[in-house]
Amino acid sequence: MELTNPGSEVPIYWVSVLICGCIIVYVILRAVYKTKMSKEWRINEPILLITAHPDDECMFFAPFLLSMKAMKVKVDLLCLSRGDYYGSGEQRLQELHNSVRVLGINRVKVVNDPLLPDDPSVAWPLDKTTKYIRSAAKEWQSKLLVTFDSYGVSGHKNHRQIYAAVREFCALEKYFKAVMLRSHFTVLKYCLPLSLFLTCFHSPVLTFYSPFWSIFSAHKAMLQHRSQLVWFRYLYIVFSFYMYGNTFKVFR
Asked: Where are the transmembrane segments (predicted)?
């Protein structure tokens, strides 16, 4: 005889209901409010996405990348570290290459510099960070730079340092334009229905939602980063607004 605890099924039931509810809300709002760009804004390619660690591209920028893929706009990726905080840099490098294939990224460059470690307690040298950004942007003839804003979504020091470097670079190189991923309050970041609702009715100049046909591609890309899949990352994958929508501030 198989014994089960009826009460143990309740949390699973409600989690399933919540997940389905989030997806339904997304589908309804996405049907009404589509990707938004101001009429005077024009996307120039190729685009250069600048991140700090392997998995940033899908944890934070997947809706933008999937929108660009649908529009057949080329996006290159500069990742400024191998994500070697726990000594798994080689594995994370392979995971990154698996992820970018899902997201349709064109070219990838990963920096391996001891002065730019994956470490939330270390401030990267601004001149060194700017140097790598300048090198990639000029090599690939990038027209638009995409990265974090001054808070860096999670507050990670490496994210914030990239913002400072891009800002300095664009101040010196007037030819380049840049947009910064808007950081949201914690409640909006992890409450998908509320964040989608508010974003739909009060969205900035640039807002991107994952296309209908690739709604789960962001999840698939994140699942490539197996070394990072601790329990709370699964919650992030399902409930974080950044897996479904991106809003940007125009730097210049």
From this structure: 12-33, 187-209, 229-245
